[in-house]
Design brief:
Elements: H1 2-20, H2 31-34, E1 45-48, E2 53-60, E3 69-73, E4 82-87, E5 90-94, E6 100-105, E7 115-121, E8 124-129, E9 135-138, E10 144-148, E11 155-159, E12 168-172, E13 176-179, E14 185-188, E15 194-200, E16 209-214, E17 219-222, E18 228-232, E19 241-246, E20 249-256, E21 259-263, E22 269-274, E23 284-290, E24 298-304, E25 311-317, E26 323-330, E27 335-339, E28 346-351, E29 356-362
Length: 363
């Protein structure tokens, strides 16, 4: 009697399961099941606007986490440039209309927080895991090539510092370590705690330099063999930095509390800007020059705040180093200046929280 009474409900329940596809086994290794931020809505807020800059949505993937990196280049077998949009689990290859062409997932131990890419030739590249151990390389399918694991390490940089057309890799840890292109150790400095490392690669015949910041707050410039060629102490202690090009020169872009600081390689401060409406101190920073208006060289900076805020700030500066645009966006370290087809202008692509990329153009 009881069975007959509940039988219709059992049948209905089974039909609902079949209809929704729940009887199929979900792929819990897929990055979408690892994304804890997909329901987090970010309302961006323009704090300082400029009527000549127009903002639009460029790309959205609901299964991606916060956008960590954006790059432009020929990333597949088809002719013409693409846009690579990264999160911590992989990269989407997107066309210039913001349509996804393909996806690559990283087969890596843990999340890749700030990935990078090294273009070897059109359609041929390697992914570089350079922030927080384990460090290493992946091929263009996202499969590991080599891994260097040092739990105390903070950062890895790369560049062709000896001009032999092959990259060298430098790891900031309790010493500075140089690796060859196979990930084999070449040399290691004496014990000293390093906070960060980047490679300065000039366009001219000048030699490349390895730039480090240590725990004492000293900036050191080293040659390919690790010899110190110059060092100086900035006004504010530097924990992390990037080497950026702007106004036909390369500078150190860094931060202190809620301030953006730009310094040349001689230690001279070029710009100092306090970011208004900061919800916390700046935890990570990235910048890129962008030619919005033909030959005028603007500079865009993304400052990422503490993870608890889920926020970053986009600041755009004029060639005169004046703030012309500021927007509070979802957490991101991804931004890139992209050449626009049939134009001398560039558009700026910036992440805006989980899976979203906005584009900024000159009206």
């Amino acid at each position: 009697m009881l069975v007959n009474n509940i039988k219709p409900y059992i049948i209905l329940f089974i039909e609902l399961i079949v209809f929704t596809g729940c009887l199929s086994s979900p792929d819990f290794s897929s990055p979408k099941f690892l994304n804890t931020n997909i329901h987090r809505k970010i309302d961006s807020k323009i704090i300082a606007g400029y009527e000549s800059i127009e903002k639009q949505n460029f790309y959205y993937n609901e299964w991606m986490t916060d956008i960590t990196y954006i790059v432009s280049g020929e990333l597949d077998s088809e002719d013409g440039p693409d846009v690579g949009v990264f999160d911590q689990f992989g990269m989407d290859i997107v066309d210039f209309d913001g349509k996804r062409k393909s996806s690559i997932f990283f087969n890596w131990e843990g999340a890749v927080l700030e990935p990078d890419i090294r273009m070897k030739k059109n359609g041929d590249f390697e992914f570089i895991v350079r922030y927080q151990a384990p460090f290493g390389l992946m091929d263009q399918r996202g499969e590991p090539i080599w891994v260097f694991n040092d739990e105390l390490s903070y950062k890895m940089a790369f560049g062709d510092t000896n001009k032999d057309d092959f990259p060298e890799y430098y790891i900031a840890t309790t010493s500075l370590i140089q690796l060859d292109m196979q990930g084999k150790k070449i040399w290691q400095t004496r014990d000293e705690i390093f906070n960060d490392v980047e490679v300065y690669n000039p366009d001219n015949s000048e030699r490349s330099l390895v730039v480090t910041s240590n725990h004492a707050g000293i900036i050191q410039l080293r040659d390919y063999k690790g010899n110190i060629v110059d060092q100086w102490t900035p006004k504010e202690k530097i924990h992390n930095f990037k080497i950026c090009r702007w106004l036909n020169s390369q500078y150190i872009l860094t931060s202190h509390n809620d301030e953006i600081i730009i310094i040349d390689l001689n230690g001279q401060e070029i710009m100092h800007h306090k970011v208004s409406h900061s919800p916390s101190g700046i935890y990570s920073i990235r910048g890129v020059s962008v030619k919005f208006d033909r030959d005028k060289d603007y500079f865009a900076v993304v400052t990422k705040f503490s993870s608890a805020t889920g926020l970053s700030m986009l600041c755009i500066f004029s060639p005169e180093k004046k703030l012309i645009f500021q927007e509070l966006v979802g957490a991101t370290t991804g931004l890139a200046a992209i050449d626009m087809p049939f134009s001398k202008r560039q558009m700026l692509l910036v992440g805006n929280g989980p899976g979203l990329v906005n584009k900024y153009e000159w009206r």
